[in-house]
From TrEMBL:
Pfam families: AA_permease_2 (PF13520). GO terms for molecular function: amino acid transmembrane transporter activity. It is a multi-pass membrane protein. InterPro entries: AA/rel_permease1. It is found in: Membrane. Keywords: Membrane, Transmembrane, Transmembrane helix, Transport. Its main location: membrane. The chain crosses the membrane at residues 52-72, 79-99, 111-128, 135-155, 175-195, 207-225, 237-255, 276-300, 322-345, 374-393, 399-418, 430-450, 456-474. The lineage of its organism: Bacteria, Bacillati, Bacillota, Bacilli, Bacillales. GO terms for cellular component: membrane. This is Amino acid permease.
Length: 491
């Protein structure tokens, strides 16, 4: 039973019966975080601002633009454009907060690391656990979508994979395993395990190809737009626009993964803000253009039977079958880059948490030759691959969105707190209009969170409860801050 609650400076210390004291909100100073990233075997610095921007685009343009335009159109109709703008604004407000922290704390871990420096260990653990949900389920969900495109592509050239090997048990009659989903994740895990340089070139090439495909959609489709299809513009009202915004928010998932690359960036203070903001700006513009064109070509009601391939369907509807075929290839490439960046982000968040003692040590072990977290890359890749292969993932998009939105809210709070507590820190990039812009980020992200169904909140709560139990059973006592505190008491 808790007997008293005391606040001492930047610690919140809970004293319980028996004299046991738990420092839930102990913090790591920014200097300590940076120094810790430079000790022992370090990650290899290979990334420029250009690479980071392509990393962000690789994560953002994929399932969202090729699949979720159809899902969102059924909720918002032609007003899907507004839904993308709302989701983009929420991300933009959060992105400025990310950019300030990324330039200030060039350390792996993204929001987890930033929270450790400002809001304390327990909040950092919660958001790190939240990020694991975001990245793992995102990789799994996208791998299932990729499997569908790949299977259809093979069928088109006369190669049939048995239906029992292309779906998770319970999702289709007779399904045993989604084998293509498992195989593609294992290939991506291999790429990431052998080095960021190799992964970078593969990602940059695939991003260039899918940008060409998106440009082709815009150029080929704009001549078939019929303004009559935009009437009525908002058939479901603002409720439909809000629901669609919360759903297509998944389309923006990934720009935060840019910040996880801090320790592998050549000039993080300069290049990280550029990579984050460039990738988000380019992708938002492309989403608005594509969603407007697609809903202008096809009456939005017709997407009910084409939620898996709305962009390809729109070009087929316009009689441009050759473009539709290219789009299917572009979608498969786009999904591969999403999986690559998401799995990369997961391994780097886990790396940071392990280095702080909150996860087992082997997760942050760096390979002698490849200078990557080799073992943890294969571990997380295997988890993601098995989830995609054996678990039906019907509601994953909404659950992933919840985790991402929670992370965006916390990063906005953290920037505000640090501006108040440490206003004189040397910030290479400053988020403008603090606290107005962080407050806007909190409002927009909070709005989208409350558009998600109650079942999503329940599942998210269960995941957080599991994480809190793990923290008190393992992470709190193994934390390096706790070890340092115990050593100080002993001396």
């Amino acid at each position: 039973m808790i007997s008293n609650l005391l606040v001492y400076g930047h610690y919140l210390k809970l004293s319980v019966k028996g004299g046991v004291r738990v420092d839930l909100f102990r913090k790591k100073s920014i200097d300590t975080l940076i120094a810790g990233s430079q000790q022992g075997k370090t990650l290899k610095k290979e990334l420029s601002a250009f690479d980071l921007a392509f990393l962000g685009i690789g994560a953002i343009i994929g399932t969202g633009i090729f699949v979720l335009t159809g899902v969102g159109a059924l909720d918002a109709g032609p007003a899907l454009v507004i839904s993308f703008i709302i989701a983009g604004l929420a991300c933009a407000f959060a992105a400025f907060n990310y950019a300030e922290f990324a330039s200030l704390v060039p350390v792996s871990g993204s929001v987890y690391t930033y929270s450790y420096a400002t809001l304390g260990e327990f909040i950092a653990w919660v958001i790190g656990w939240d990020l694991m949900l975001e990245y793992i389920l995102a990789v799994s969900a996208v791998s299932v979508g990729w499997s569908g495109y790949f299977t259809n592509f093979l069928a088109g050239i006369g190669i049939e994979i048995p239906a029992s090997l292309t779906a998770a048990p319970g999702s289709d009659p007779g399904a045993i395993i989604n084998l293509p989903s498992l195989v593609i994740v294992m290939i991506i895990a291999f790429l990431l395990s052998i080095g960021v340089k190799e992964s970078k070139w593969v990602n940059n090439l695939m991003v260039a190809l899918k940008l060409i495909v998106v440009a082709l959609v815009i150029v080929a489709g704009v001549f078939y737009v019929k303004p009559d299809n935009w009437t009525p513009f908002m058939p479901m009202g603002w409720d439909g626009v809000g629901l669609a915004a919360a759903t297509v928010f998944f389309a923006y998932l990934g720009f935060d993964a840019v910040s996880t690359a801090a320790e592998e960036t050549r000039n993080p203070s300069r290049d990280l803000p550029k990579g984050i903001l460039w990738s988000l700006g380019i992708c938002t513009l492309l989403y608005i253009l594509v969603s407007g064109i697609v809903t202008g070509i096809v009456p939005w009601q017709k997407f009910a039977d084409h939620q898996d391939d709305p962009v390809a369907f729109a070009l087929q509807f316009a009689g441009q079958d050759w473009v539709a075929g290219i789009i299917s290839v572009g979608a498969a490439i786009g999904m591969m880059t999403v999986m690559l960046v998401m799995l990369y982000g997961q391994t780097r968040v886990g790396f940071a948490m392990s280095r702080d003692g909150l996860l087992p040590k082997w997760i942050s072990k760096v390979h002698d030759k490849y200078r990557t977290p080799f073992a943890s890359t294969w571990f997380y890749g295997t988890v993601c691959g098995l989830l995609g292969a054996f678990v039906p993932l019907d509601d994953l998009v909404k659950l992933v969105n919840m985790g991402t939105l929670a992370a965006f809210v916390l990063i906005s709070v953290a920037v505000w707190v640090l501006r108040v507590k440490q206003p004189d820190l040397p910030r290479k990039f400053r988020c403008p209009w603090v606290p107005v812009l962080p407050i806007l980020a909190i409002i927009f992200c909070g709005y989208l969170m409350f558009q998600l169904p109650g079942s999503t909140w329940l599942r998210f709560g269960i995941w957080l409860l599991i994480g809190i139990i793990f923290y008190f059973v393992y992470s709190r006592k193994n934390s390096k801050l706790n070890s340092a505190s115990e050593a100080e008491k002993a001396s």
